[in-house]
């Protein structure tokens, strides 16, 4: 929330960070230090940056004039652990009958859409559903920012969209990747996020 208030989230609860930044300039310096090694730039002409760090963290930075009250930096870390549908039932995240319905839909190769608000568990559910896919199937995942794991599956191709470079070139959209994925002999195409 800028230099006036900083927070971290744990277990779905926001906790304040005392004295995180002295001023907006400290946030700008941090933003530049994070995005520069990624070959990205942020300025008034391009005031928004979305990126994925090598660690897998997702970074979103927004600066004035778009961010009215000063620069904003959001860093999201996703768990490396993949929960199965059974584990989600055990945690009380979904009822058993619903997990069974989803498992059946996956095994019957039905089309599924997972929707929800930020932090509602969409990625967690998609990763759990991936455990239900036969290891003999070829999967192509397409995402804005790679979050899906599918690490247990032997036939996964992971594709990630890309914004245009500073020169305005080289953008690769979700639509481009879906078109390309159809040429890759997929048994399943999983689009991680549609906006």
From TrEMBL:
Parts of the chain that traverse the membrane: none
Family, as annotated: Belongs to the GSP E family.
Annotated organism of origin: human gut metagenome
Chain ranges of the Bacterial type II secretion system protein E domain: 7-195
PANTHER family named among the record's database cross-references: TWITCHING MOTILITY PROTEIN PILT, TYPE II_IV SECRETION SYSTEM ATPASE
Protein known as: Type II/IV secretion system protein
GO molecular function: ATP hydrolysis activity
Lineage: unclassified sequences, metagenomes, organismal metagenomes
């Amino acid at each position: 929330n800028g230099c006036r208030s900083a927070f971290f989230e744990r277990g779905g609860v926001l906790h304040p960070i005392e004295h995180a930044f002295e001023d907006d300039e400290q946030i700008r310096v941090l933003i530049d230090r994070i995005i520069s090694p990624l070959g990205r730039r942020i300025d008034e002409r391009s005031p928004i940056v979305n990126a994925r760090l090598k660690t897998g963290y997702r970074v979103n930075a927004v600066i004035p004039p778009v961010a009215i009250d000063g620069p904003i930096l959001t860093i999201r870390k996703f768990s490396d652990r993949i929960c199965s549908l059974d584990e989600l039932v055990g945690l009380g995240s979904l009822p058993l009958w619903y997990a069974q319905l989803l498992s059946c839909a996956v095994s019957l190769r039905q089309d599924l859409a997972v929707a929800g608000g930020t932090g509602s568990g969409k990625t967690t559910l998609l990763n759990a559903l991936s455990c239900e896919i036969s290891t003999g199937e070829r999967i192509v995942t397409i995402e804005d920012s790679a979050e899906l794991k599918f690490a247990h599956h032997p036939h996964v191709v992971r594709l990630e969209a890309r914004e245009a470079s500073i020169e305005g070139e080289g953008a690769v959209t979700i639509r481009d990747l879906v078109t390309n994925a159809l040429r890759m002999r997929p048994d399943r195409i999983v689009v991680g996020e549609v906006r």
